[in-house]
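User: Some background: our group keeps a shared notebook of sequences we're curious about, and every so often someone picks one and asks for a predicted structure to add to the entry. Today it's my turn. The entry only has the sequence so far, pasted here. Could you supply the structure so I can complete it?
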Amino acid sequence: MKILTYDLHIHSCLSPCGDNDMTPATIAGMSKVIGLDLIALTDHNTCKNCPAIAKAALAYGILFLPGMELTTSEEVHVLCYFPSLDAAMDFDRYVSAHLPDIPNTPVLFGDQFICDEEDQIFGTEERLLISATDIPFDAVYDLVRQYDGIMVPAHINKPSTSLLGNLGFIPEGSQFSCAEVKNEADWPQLQQQYPYLANCNHLCSSDAHDLNSIHEPIHTLAAAGTSLSDILAAIPKKL
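Assistant: Of course. Here's the predicted structure to add to the notebook entry:
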């Protein structure tokens, strides 16, 4: 059994709300300095900086899990994690086709930079990535499974852009078995208030949009090994 310190909710400079210094190699380097074993990149509605940070993380000797923070049609944020870069980029193409054609205005929302593993900017995303897709929450579980991934509702009790904040309840027929909370202390009360969560695991990540917000190595995940499949299997608790 491997005990891995993690931060599985980090935004890069591709998210318009992310600082421009949140470049792939810088994120990987800071995570190494902090002492994290495992990180995930979860930009809004895109995985396009995942290839760069995967290479940077490998160079720094830390584990990288490809991910995305999907915005559903209800504006609920859902973390989606994948067992390979290929699966993540396939999912990226699917989500891109379901993102509205609303142009980004950098002066209002921020830049959306696509980088290589040496932090060189080679492109920008022209559409606004924080827009809601037309994918409903109740379709996400089965959709992500088609790419061999898992879904984790993000910052579940945040007042906005969350499952409980936006919907106010856990929909009947939900199948997720892990949820993210911003603060560890919130979890026991949430399990009491929402019986569905009693059979779920939970993550506690930073939702970092700047380098100083990346979590210190205080939260851990127990995995059978260090492969991406091992990590994906460790995130949810079996129902």
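Suggested note for the entry: The CA atoms of residues 63 and 114 lie 21 Å apart. The chain is about 30% helix and 20% strand.
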